[in-house]
């Protein structure tokens, strides 16, 4: 490996690539070959004092494991993550029609390619290697996305790649697939917040500890139980609550082995939903520089839009007419909110809320709403709020699995209201 000119500015910069990390450890340990025995003791002692959190330490050891078992992404051996500064706004260039679009080469995330892995053992560290950027509320971003980014039809994923276990052995894959899909017969959904994890019942097989039963306490001081396979039936807020309790050290009532198994199960599930949401949600996909979204373009055209007032309800399919940046009427379906950016959703929500409250503005129509229109507007606002909250929680969950830069300590993360 060629030595780069100039010293590294920080440990994080040194850790930019798995190969640099490997060279760093081998140099400090003064060895030529890294063995599993060395990974289990001296390397751990060397690295645990340099990591800011257990999540960071876990990530580094995953990278070493993949390096020593020939599972790195050798198409990008130097681990180059970003061709540009993520803190700067997305660049825009004119296309053949003279419209401003985002250059396709800035969408570099490998999430979708990772999910398509079926025959190769090339392992793309999609959640961590390509962290998400943070652009705040980008308005009208869907109009800036090149057509090549959209998917013609949604595609199915390789299940093992989606679960984040493609690199595991066949027997362990089979057991995880069996365990992760075992659901309890009871209804586990609740809007009550999780305030404590009281008891775990664990089953171990092929080196994986499955959470057979999890007993938690919600803010009504009642105990609830569910299985690991029920994670997908819980609210995203429940997953975040349990992760916060874990990293803040508030489940000391459990022994160390149980806490470790609980953390592994939670983070494996979190990684899988982060990967999937990035390719199935426009805003999250843009922030993580997606090569191709696994969603079709939003259905914004209707032949009668020109003769309809903006911010009025549309019956079939359900949705509302809104105005884009060019003051042209467009259609927003209530079941396609994930195809619009936060900024666009905020604008539509604000306009609908102003009409509900009777605020008169020049940009809003003067027609009087019927009761049915008011009910549809309330339903649209509620759906938009749910979509925006889901994205806020997903951005928080990405921090727990190293998928989004976070300067502070994970233990200081606040609960989302």
Question: Biggest β-sheet: count, sense, barrel?
Answer: 3 strands, antiparallel
Q: Enumerate the spans where pLDDT stays under 50 for 5 or more consecutive residues.
A: 1-11, 14-19, 70-81, 120-125
Report the count of strand segments. 8
The DSSP helix count reads 13
- String of helices and strands: HHHHHEEHHHEEEHHHEEEHH
Strand residue percentage: 5-15%
Order of strands in the sheet with most strands: 3-4-5
- Alpha-carbon Rg, integer: 24 Å
Which bin fits the share of residues in helices? 25-40%
Distance between the termini: 48 Å
Average per-residue pLDDT, rounded, comes to 75
| Class derived from helix and strand content | alpha+beta
Protein name: F-box domain-containing protein
Verbal overview:
The chain is of the alpha+beta class. Among the domains are: 8-69, no CATH class; 305-392, no CATH class. It contains 13 helices and 8 strands. It has helices at 11-14, 18-29, 36-40, 42-47, 54-68, 111-115, 159-163, 170-180, 236-247, 256-280, 282-287, 342-356, 371-400, and strands at residues 93-94, 100-101, 194-205, 208-218, 223-226, 313-314, 319-323, 329-333. The strands form 3 sheets. The chain has a 3-stranded antiparallel sheet. Residues 1-11, 14-19, 70-81 and 120-125 have low confidence and may be disordered.
């Amino acid at each position: 490996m060629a030595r780069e000119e100039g010293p590294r500015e920080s440990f994080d910069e040194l850790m930019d690539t798995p190969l640099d990390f490997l060279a760093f450890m081998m140099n400090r340990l003064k060895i030529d070959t890294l063995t599993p025995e060395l990974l289990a003791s001296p390397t751990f002692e060397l690295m645990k004092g340099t990591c800011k959190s257990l999540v960071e330490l876990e990530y580094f050891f995953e990278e070493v494991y993949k390096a020593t078992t020939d599972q790195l992404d050798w198409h990008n051996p130097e681990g180059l993550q970003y061709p540009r500064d993520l803190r700067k706004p997305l660049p825009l260039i004119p296309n053949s029609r003279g419209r401003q679009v985002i250059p396709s080469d800035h969408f570099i995330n490998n999430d979708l390619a990772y999910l398509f892995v079926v025959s190769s053992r090339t392992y793309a560290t999609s959640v961590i290697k390509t962290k998400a950027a943070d652009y705040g509320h980008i308005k009208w971003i869907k109009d800036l996305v090149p057509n090549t980014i959209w998917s013609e039809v949604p595609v199915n994923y390789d299940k093992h790649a989606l679960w984040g276990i493609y690199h595991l052995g066949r027997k362990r894959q089979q057991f995880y697939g069996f365990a992760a899909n075992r659901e309890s017969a009871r209804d586990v959904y609740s809007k009550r917040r999780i305030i404590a994890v009281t008891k775990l019942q664990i089953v171990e097989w092929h080196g994986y500890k499955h959470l057979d039963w999890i007993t938690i306490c919600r803010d009504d001081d009642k105990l609830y139980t569910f299985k690991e396979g029920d994670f997908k039936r819980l609210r995203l807020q429940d997953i975040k609550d349990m992760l916060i309790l874990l990293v803040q050290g508030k489940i000391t009532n459990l022994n160390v082995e149980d806490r470790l198994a609980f953390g592994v199960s939670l983070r494996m599930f979190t990684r899988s939903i982060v990967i999937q949401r990035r390719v199935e949600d426009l805003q999250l996909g843009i922030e993580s520089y997606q090569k191709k979204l696994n969603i079709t373009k939003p259905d914004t055209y209707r032949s009668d839009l020109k003769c309809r007032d903006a911010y009025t309800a549309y019956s079939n399919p359900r949705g509302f007419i809104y105005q884009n940046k060019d003051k042209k009427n467009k259609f927003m379906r209530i079941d396609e909110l994930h195809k619009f950016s936060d900024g666009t959703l905020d604008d539509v929500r604000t306009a609908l809320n102003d009409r509900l409250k009777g605020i008169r503005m020049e940009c809003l129509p003067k027609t009087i709403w019927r009761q049915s229109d008011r009910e549809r507007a309330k339903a649209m606002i509620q759906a938009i709020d749910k979509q925006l909250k889901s994205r806020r929680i997903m951005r928080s969950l990405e921090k727990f699995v190293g998928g989004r830069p976070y300067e502070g300590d994970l233990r200081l993360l606040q609960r989302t209201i």
